[in-house]
Amino acid sequence: MRILKLIYLNLTFYFFFLIFSLVAIPGLGAFVILCALILPRRKVLKRLRRAIVWYGTVIVRILPFPLVRVKYKDYARNQGKGPFIFVSNHRSSSDPFLMACPCYSYEAIQVVNIWPFRIPIVGVLAKIAGYLSVRQMPFDDFKALTTKLLKEGVSIVVFPEGTRSRDNAVGQFHGAIFRVALETKKPIVPICLAGNENIPPIGSAFLHPGVIKIHQLKALLWEEYGELSPFKLKNYVRQIIVDEVADMERCA
Amino acid sequence: MAEQDIIRMVNEVFRDSFEIPEDKLVPEANIFNELGLDSLDIVDLVVALQKKFGVTIRDDERVRTIRTLGDIHSFIQLIKTEGKK
């Protein structure tokens, strides 16, 4: 019975994923081209980034429902209009799509690995939208680009572990974005993910039924963290995420 | 410089620059996976070590092979010995 449920989940999800992507991605491409003809570049980028978030929302919240449910809790309401630096733990290849939940109301880009840029059309759109691959650039370039984006009001989503956790433990954080936070004085919002480790598991595209929990925690303001060194700050934020994820898993 | 002095001074750098507690500062501790340093922290570490020991290690290729705290102890010992020659 369980196997049948699994097969059903995967067949329906990937069928609708394919159909939706075949319509949405070229549609998104056409939309961008059309906008570029009549709107200034800044407005085109804003619309493209919002459209990518909507695409992600459909992929994670609608297509796999009801076998995969997303429970999103926002403990950070009414904290201003941003921009924010969203910092999340990383367990699955679905995580960049899950970021559509915390970013729903914001214009945001993600700092991702190299592989998303290799996906046909999506990779090109991500590049146009300003998604960054931290591994492909020196820190000074990364700092200059992220600082410029934050000044323009664009929030930034980062997975500072750099790679997916293989044992669900939160790995060590890379400090690049925390150095940017200290210089730009922007609020840092910890995002905690749990329950998504098998949706899909590492090395597989096979989804398993389950409940994905996303907790968006209270933003850390520069007034609270500005005195910390980059090393202390990254470990401080990491510990907040570690503690919350442990609580989320205890309650599961 | 005695080996014990080098260990004490390197550990002081880790305590002062990164606020890493003494109990974590064992020679076999991996500076990346266990102590949590990243490539940018290594730059800060090199600067702090240079200041502490009065040596120049920034352009030394051997820095790239360092993985554990014990590797740093041995490396500083080596640098100091080479400096005497």
Largest sheet properties of chain B: none
Structural class of chain B: mainly alpha
H/E element string of chain B? HHH
CATH class of chain B: Mainly Alpha
Largest sheet strand order of chain A: 1-7-6-2-5-3-4
Keywords:
heterodimer, A: 252 residues, alpha/beta, Glycerol-3-phosphate (1)-acyltransferase, 7-stranded mixed β-sheet, 8 helices, B: 85 residues, mainly alpha, Non-ribosomal Peptide Synthetase Peptidyl Carrier Protein, Chain A, 3 helices, 55% helix
List the helices and strands and how they pair.
The complex is a heterodimer of chains A (252) and B (85).
Chain A: H1 2-38, H2 41-62, E1 68-74, E2 85-88, H3 95-98, E3 108-112, H4 122-129, E4 132-133, H5 139-151, E5 155-158, H6 176-184, E6 188-194, E7 210-216, H7 222-225, H8 230-250
Parallel strand pairs in A: 1-7, 2-5, 2-6, 3-4, 3-5
Antiparallel strand pairs in A: 6-7
Chain B: H1 3-18, H2 39-53, H3 69-84
Plain-language structure description:
The complex is a heterodimer of chains A (252) and B (85). Chain A is α/β, with parallel strands linked by helices and 252 residues long. Chain A has one domain (2-250): 3-Layer(aba) Sandwich (Glycerol-3-phosphate (1)-acyltransferase). In chain A, 47% of the residues lie in helices and 14% in strands. In chain A, strands 1-7-6-2-5-3-4 form a seven-stranded mixed beta sheet, sandwiched between helices. In chain A, helix 4 links the parallel strand 3 and strand 4 (132-133). The mean pLDDT of chain A is 90. Chain B has 85 residues and is mainly α. Chain B has one domain: ACP-like (Non-ribosomal Peptide Synthetase Peptidyl Carrier Protein, Chain A, Orthogonal Bundle), CATH 1.10.1200. Chain B is 55% helix and 0% strand. In chain B, helix 1 (3-18) packs across helix 2 (39-53) and helix 1 (3-18) packs across helix 3. The A-B interface holds A 139, 172-176, 179, 229-232, 234-235 and B 17-19, 32-33, 36-41, 44.
